[in-house]
Each structure stands twice: as C-alpha cells, then as structure tokens.
Design a protein that fits this description.
By secondary structure, this protein is an alpha+beta fold. The chain has 2 domains: 5-125 and 266-282, Diaminopimelate Epimerase, Chain A, domain 1; 155-257, Diaminopimelate Epimerase, Chain A, domain 1, CATH 3.10.310. 20% of the residues lie in helices and 39% in strands. The protein has helices spanning 5-8, 40-47, 85-99, 176-184, 222-234, 276-282; strands at residues 14-21, 24-30, 57-63, 69-75, 80-81, 103-108, 111-119, 122-126, 155-158, 162-167, 194-202, 205-212, 216-217, 241-246, 249-256, 259-265, 267-274. A hairpin with a 3-residue loop joins strand 9 (155-158) and strand 10. The longest helix is centred in the first third of the chain and has 15 residues, at 85-99.
C-alpha cells in the first residue's frame, strides 16, 4: 500500500492568485485574516519569472487599523510602489465578486481610491487628481513640468508614482530597453521614474509604450496611462478623455474635476499555493 503520509502532512504554504489587466500581471496575496507575510526578499523571489512566479507588481490585501481594506504594492526588485491602477482594478473586481457590491473604496499609498463596476466585465477606478508640482512628482528641483530639461523635452506628472512622458512621432520605433533605464535613473528623479513614450493618433486616441520603474517593459501600466493622458491634455494635444492603446490593449482614461478615471478589463488566471520549503528558503 502506498504511503501518502509525507504528502498529507506537508506544511501548509501561502495561498495566492495570479491576475492581469491587459497583460499587466500581478500576484495577489490576501492577508486580511493574518499578518502581512511579504518582505523585500520574498517580493524579489516571487518576482523571478524563472525560479518564482513572475509579476509586474505584487499586491497584498490587508485590513487597516480602522477596519478599512488596504492594498499595498511591491515591484519585482523588492521596492515598494504607492500606486498601481490595473492592480487596483483587479483587486476591486475580486472584492466586488466576493461581496456583491458594485462600488467600493480601497486605501492605497495614493490615498482612498473609489472603484466601480463599469459593466460588460469592465472596472473603473478613480486614481485621484494628478500631482502637478515638482515636489510631489517628485523632481530633484523646481522646474516647469511640461518641459523638462532632458533630451526630447518630456513632461512629468505624479499619479502616486513618478512619470516621465515623452511625446514621440512613432512609439513603435522607440528602443525601450535602451531609453527606459536611461531616464528611469536620471538624477532629475530622486525616486527614479516610470518612462512612457506616447504617440498622438488623434485628439481622443494615443498610443503608449512603457518602461516601468524597477527595470521592466510591461504590457500595460494604468498609472502611466493616466499620466500620459494628463501630459498630452496639458499640452493641448488631446481632449481630457482619451483611449490609450497599450501593448496589452486599450484603457479608457477620463481626467475629470474629481480625479483621473481609468476603465478597463481584468482577468483571474489561476490560484495557487507557495510551497512551505520555498518560503523557508527565502526567509
């Protein structure tokens, strides 16, 4: 008779979900019933697409001191992020499915963000008003945000994360692997920056490609789409409501008086459990 005792007595690991919004992919850990298990070392280990799971951002759902639902974001290099629009939409979809609610609020490093069911499988979230002063982006010194002293004269906007937005004739022609790191680490950005290259198609459509802070090209970036829409609108190139075409598909961005609203799809790919031995090796 086969001895299954070793399998059945195996120490329990850590449950997770894999989700994405237009290919912008996330590992989601629900820590509402326990302590937050994530450390920089664990974030780096999970972010390894060969030896871990791989993600653009790691998301932790937890309960705040006042009972509110909070979500925290980690980059794959083990650094923290204050905002991630597509991940916020993914978590909002999970919680709306769980509770039956059609709207809810989530507390992030960006502040309290309202999310709503937009119908047809879409979720929209108010990413808040853009940060349009040099200290908030942040930049290293005072300067005009629409005309940074860098080659190509990009614009800057904060959306909880810093963004450097270049308007270019052809977004497809940009070498992201070369240009992204070049500007991510420019001394002008004391906290580094996300780098977007935007081509204006018409007044209601832009094409955007992105290098995300932390060293990666991603299929989509929600806060980057918001920042790009803000920069092009401030320059008079587009309306305040635009469709942003990303490598992973389109997001609709609407810059209103109460904030920048982002609408798009979400997807749950699979559920899994991290092995206890993997967790022990990382600790």
């Amino acid at each position: 008779m086969k001895d299954d005792s070793r399998i059945t007595s195996r120490p329990r690991g850590l449950r997770f979900l894999k989700m994405h919004g237009l290919g912008n992919d996330f590992v989601v850990i629900d820590a509402r019933k326990g302590d937050d298990p994530v450390t920089p070392a664990l974030a780096r280990a999970l972010g390894d697409r060969h030896r871990g799971i791989g993600f653009d951002q790691l998301v932790v759902i937890r309960v705040g001191a006042a009972g509110e639902t909070r979500i925290d974001f980690w980059n794959s290099d083990g650094s923290r992020a204050a905002a991630c629009g597509n991940a916020t939409r993914c978590v909002a979809r999970l919680l709306m499915n769980e509770t039956g609610a059609t709207a809810l609020e989530l507390v992030t490093g960006r502040g309290v963000l309202r999310a709503e069911d937009a119908g047809e499988g879409l979720v929209r979230v108010n990413m808040g008003l853009p940060q349009l002063d040099w200290q908030s982006v942040p930049l290293a010194r005072e300067m005009e945000l629409d005309n940074l002293p860098l080659p190509g004269r990009p614009g800057a906007a904060g959306m909880g994360n810093p963004h450097c937005v270049f308007v270019v004739p052809d977004a497809e022609a940009v070498d992201l692997e070369r240009e992204g790191p070049r500007f991510e680490h420019d001394p002008l950005f004391p906290e580094r920056t996300n780098v977007e290259f935007v081509q204006v198609i018409d007044r209601e459509t832009i094409r955007m490609r992105v290098w995300e802070r932390g060293g990666m090209i991603t299929q989509a970036c929600g806060s980057g789409a918001c920042a790009s829409a803000v920069v092009t609108a401030r320059r008079g190139l587009t309306e305040h409501a635009v469709t942003v075409i990303l490598d992973g598909g389109p997001l609709h961005i609407d810059w209103r008086e109460d904030g920048v609203w982002m609408t798009g799809p979400t997807a749950l790919v699979f559920e899994g459990e991290l092995d206890a031995a993997f967790l022990e090796a990382v600790a």
